[in-house]
Amino acid sequence: MITFLFLWLCLPRVESLTYPAVISPQDPTLVIGSSLTATCSVNSDLHLKAEDLYWTLNGRRLPPESYKVLNGTTLSVALANLNGSRQQSGDNLVCHSRDGSILAGSCLYVGLPPEKPVNITCWSKNMKDLTCKWAPGTEGETYLHTNYTLKYKLRWYGRDNTCQEYRTAGQYSCHIPKDLALFTPYEIWVEASNRLGVAVSEVVMLDILDVVTTDPPADVTVSRVGDLEDQLSVRWSSPPALKDFLFQAKYQIQYRVEDSAEWKVVDDVGNQTSCRLAGLRPGTVYFVQVRCNPFGIYGSKKAGIWSDWSNPTAASTPRSDRVPGVCDPKSGEQNTTLRRELKQFFGWVKKHAYGCSNLSIKLYDQWRVWLQKSHKTRNQVLPGDKL
Amino acid sequence: MEVLTVDPANLLSPAASSSSLSQQEVATKIKQTHSLTVLLKHCSEQLLAEYVRHQGEPFSSPDFQPPAMAVPGLPSPSVPPEAWLALSDGKRLWHLAAAYAALPGLLGSVRRQQAELNPLASELHRQLEAAARQCRGLAGNLERIMGALGVTGPPPPSSSLGGPTTGAFLAKLGGYHVCRLHRDWAMRSHEALGLLRTKYPL
C-alpha cells in the first residue's frame, strides 16, 4: 500500500495530458551488466488489470517469467545483465496492455563511464592557430553519448580556456583560431564526460613553434627535360605564408605511374624549388606531388610538421618513335668524324698491340649495321602500345 | 537541396494592400503556394522517416501504433477526408492557417528535445529546422491568399506552454506526433491548394 502511494506521488503532474500508466524509474542510467526492476502502474480509471499487461524492450517482448504482479494495477519486470544501449537516445522500455497498445514508456541508458582520451596531437597552421585531435580511450564504444571538451592554458598562468570549434579535423578534434602566444609552453588536455562519469586525459605540453605546419607548395609544375625519355623536371614555389619568417624549408616529392598505386618518394630535398626526377619510363604518364616542412623558424632546431601534399600534377615522359627508315642513317652515310678517328685508332692498334690483328674499321662498320638492325626491333611500334 | 522559403514581405508589391490583388496576382500566388506544398509533402515524409530511425524500436518498426496523444495547440486534421473536400475554400484555408501557425513552434520544440536525445543526429536537426522554416513560409503565403480572397484568419496560437520537462520516452512520442501531424497537414494543404489552383487558373 505504501509502495502504491509512493508511486502515485511520483506521477508527473501535467495539466493537459493524462497518462494511462506510468513506468518507474524514468530514464535511469546504468552500467553495462547491471540489473533493473521496473514497475508499470496503470491509471485506475482505465479498469485494466496488472495481469493483462506485458513489457517490451526495444520492440522485443520480455518473457513473462520476469514479471511480477505487485497489486491490482501494478506489474513489475526484472531485467538482468543489461547490454549497452542500442541507440544513444536510450533503449525503449514499454508497458503494453493485452491488445498491444502502448500505455507508458521509459528510456534506459546503459553504458560505460568514459575512458581517458589519449594520443593528443596538435599542429599550428602558419603559427596562427592550433588544431588538436585525440582518440577516445581504449574501449571507444561507451554506448552513451560522450561529450569531449578540449582545454588549454599557458603553463605559467592560471586561467583555463575552453576550445569552442569542434570536429574541424575529424570527429575528435578541436580548433583554436586565435590569441595564441609563441615561445611559451601551453598545457593541453581533453575531458570526456557522459551520464556515468568524467575522465580527463594526460596533460600535453607544447610550444606552438614546435608544431608548425604550412600550406603545400604552390605552382607545382612538371615538365619534360628536352627529349630525355627518362626524366622530368619538377618546379614549385615555397608557401607564401611563411615567407616572412621561413629560414629554411625541407621538401619531399612523391610520384607514381598513372596506373599504379605505389608512390616513390624523393626525400632530402633541401631549401630549393626545383628537382629533377630521373630513371623514369619513357612514354609514361606520371603524377607528382610536393609537400613542405617548415624548418628552423626563429632559430628553432626542430623540424615542423609536413604540410599536405600539393594537388597531383601530371606529365608524361617523351617516347622516341623510331619509324623504320626515317631517322636511320643511310648505309653509305656514317658519322664521318668518329669513323675517321676510329680508323686511325685501329691502324695504331695493329702496329702496336699484339694479338689484336682482327680489329679493323671493318669490325666497327659491322657493329654499326648490327646496331641499326637491333634498334629497329627495339623501337618497333606494337599494336598494344600506348603512344 | 534548395529550400523554397517564402518571405511574406516579398510576396507582392509593397504598394498592394491585402485585398487589392489582381486576379492574375492571386492566381500566381496560389500556384507558388501549391509548389511549396509539393515540397512540404516530400520533406515531411523524409522527416518522419528520419525521426523514427533515431528513436529506436518500436518507433522505427513499420507497424508502430502510438497511443493517441493530444499535442497542445495543434489540432489533428480531424475533419475526415470526404468532409474536408466538401468544405468551402475559405474554411479549408482557415484550418490550414491555424495548423501552420502552430507547427513552426512545435517543430522547434522537437528540435530542442532531439538536440538532447540525439546530439549527433545532425541530419535530423537540419531537417527539423528546415521543416519549421517551410511551415513559416507556408503560413505567410496562406495569409496573403486569404487576405486577397477576403477570408478572415484564425486567432494567433496561444504562446506555447513550454510544458514541464517530460521523460525521454514521452519526448520521443511527442516528437513523433508532431512529425506525423506535420506530414498529415502537408498532404491536406497539397490537396487544398490543388483545388484552389483549378479555381484560380493562371
TrEMBL record, chain A:
Residue ranges annotated for the Fibronectin type-III domain, each copy included: 116-211, 216-320
Domain Ig-like: 12-95
Main location, first listed in the record: membrane
Region (Disordered): 310-333
Protein's GO biological process: negative regulation of neuron apoptotic process
Location(s) in or outside the cell: Membrane; Secreted
One of the record's GO cellular component terms: external side of plasma membrane
Keyword Phosphoprotein: yes
Entry keywords, A to Z: Disulfide bond, Glycoprotein, Immunoglobulin domain, Membrane, Phosphoprotein, Receptor, Repeat, Secreted, Signal, Transmembrane, Transmembrane helix
Signal peptide: 1-16
GO molecular function list: cytokine receptor activity
Membrane topology, from the record: Single-pass type I membrane protein
Similarity section: Belongs to the type I cytokine receptor family. Type 3 subfamily.
Name of the protein in question: Cytokine receptor-like factor 1
Taxonomic placement: Eukaryota, Metazoa, Chordata, Craniata, Vertebrata
The gene coding this protein: CRLF1
Automatic annotation (TrEMBL), chain B:
Family annotation (Pfam families): PRF
Membrane spanning stretches: none
GO CC terms in record: extracellular space
Keyword field contains Secreted: yes
A biological process from GO: cell surface receptor signaling pathway
Major localization class: secreted
Keywords of this entry: Cytokine, Secreted
Keyword check for Protein biosynthesis: no
Subcellular locations according to the entry: Secreted
UniProt cross-references to InterPro entries, sorted A to Z: 4_helix_cytokine-like_core, PRF/CT
PANTHER family hit by this protein: CARDIOTROPHIN-1, PTHR21353
Family in the record: Belongs to the IL-6 superfamily.
Protein name: Cardiotrophin 1
